Amino acid sequence: IYHIVNHALFKAALFLGVGVIYLHTKETNLYNLGGLWRRFPVTAVLMFLAVLGITGAPGLNGYASKTLLHHAVSLAAETGTPWVVWVERLFLLVGVGTTASFTKLYYLIFLGKPAKIKISGGVSPRLQLAMGLLTAVMVGIGLAPEFFPNNVAVPAAQALGMENAAASLVGLSFWNLGDVTGMLITLILGILVCWAGLRCGVFHWQPPMWLTLEGLGELVGQGIFAVWRRGAEFYRFVAKTVRDLGKAMGARLYSACRRFDQSRSGTIGGVTLTGISADAALLIGTLVLLIIWYTMINPGLPGLRLLYLLFRHMGGLLQ
């Protein structure tokens, strides 16, 4: 929850900052921007704080919650869950990638070569005010990172009976040398990755379509559509077959009943029915089936004797 709140703060500030730039430039290609800190100094400062927050720089809110997450992952790895070690390594790798990504964003917008694009006049005081309020909260959390754990997380854990979790949070230090050094190393590595990518042109590399999210989504969509189409065709085939078979069987049954009813005589299993309509024969047959079913589900009844008497009586009536 702590990191969700912090993430909402610096992501909202970043979106507002990018929105200010877009409203005045109408440009969505970062490589067409650059040097805009002179034109938007307040936005540049506020967005710089937001970038520091999302990268986890000490003194901002991102550092507080990322440090707490890192402690939790490290504790899990030390208490008998070996595979969590890879989660910790992935956590550090993601931190480097985040730093590289947002360093690139900030550099291309504000610190790169001045762009030769048309910039509309005016400022955005409301957006800058919103960014200022968000960054003020970010700085406040970053300077007092223990406030949330001590006043919210610990009482909540104690109320829920999670004494071990509460004990692990009490007295937690956010400013130990190991945490600060680790975060600074992550930031330096991210900046170096960004610098290398900009120098080597790696960020301009366009991967094959099947390696992109759009390409993978398109392939998955095509696969689902193909399966759906095959399933629909199979369903239509089965439905048509069953429908045709039902019509054929119904027609044959109707024809047989008509012939039997018109002749008013017939032979069933060696028994000749004379002077009896097909309706009566069907009723008698249904009654016989019901009696057989009833005797099968009630094995205590003298079923065979009952059937024998029934058929004997029917034979006498037909004669």
**Beta-strand percent range:** under 5%
Count of helical segments? Answer: 11
Low-confidence stretches: none
Strand order of the largest sheet: 1-2
**Topology as H/E string?**
HHHHHHHHHEEHH
Structure, described:
The termini are far apart. The longest helix has 51 residues, at 213-263. The protein has 3 domains: 2-143 and 175-205; 208-263; 264-319, no CATH class. The protein has helices at residues 2-25, 41-55, 61-78, 84-111, 125-143, 147-159, 163-169, 177-200, 213-263, 278-297, 303-318; strands at residues 265-268, 271-274. With 319 residues, the chain is mostly helical. 74% of the residues lie in helices and 3% in strands. The protein has a two-stranded antiparallel ribbon with strand order 1-2. It has 11 helices and 2 strands. Helix 1 packs antiparallel against helix 5 (125-143), helix 2 packs antiparallel against helix 4 (84-111) and helix 2 (41-55) runs parallel beside helix 5.
Keywords:
11 helices, 2 strands
Can you give me a brief rundown of this structure?
This protein has helices at 2-25, 41-55, 61-78, 84-111, 125-143, 147-159, 163-169, 177-200, 213-263, 278-297, 303-318; strands at residues 265-268, 271-274. It is mostly helical.
